[in-house]
Design goal:
Number of domains: 1
Shape: globular
CATH superfamily: Macrophage Migration Inhibitory Factor
Structural class: alpha/beta
Strand order of the largest sheet: 2-1-3-4
Strand content: 25-35%
Amino acid sequence: MPHIVMEYSTGLQRKTAIGELLSEVHATVRNAGIFAPEAIKSRAVAFDEYVIGDNGSEGDFVHVTLAIFNGRSPEQRQNLSKAILAVLGRKLPEAASLTVEVREIEKESYAKYGGRPQEGKA
């Protein structure tokens, strides 16, 4: 935890290096200094079908969801959101829609399997 999911329109693949954009968003979250770097996981998902307002599928979009454990302050969450949005705006100034959502996950209900159980932990 945290998980970064970057959803984007497939048209962006012709306009920008998606892997580099994802890496920059990842680095932005890492550089916030509130998460263990090895715990941050990032992935990108392309969408062929989408609608933006009355424009249908004209224009490109990126929506980043940052899922984090509960307990961060509203200011920390807002700063993360603004920092990610700044990266998107700098890299994709012509996109029709750039959005960021910081979503809290209740730590007590989160489950993870990391392969082999660690000694002393079940």
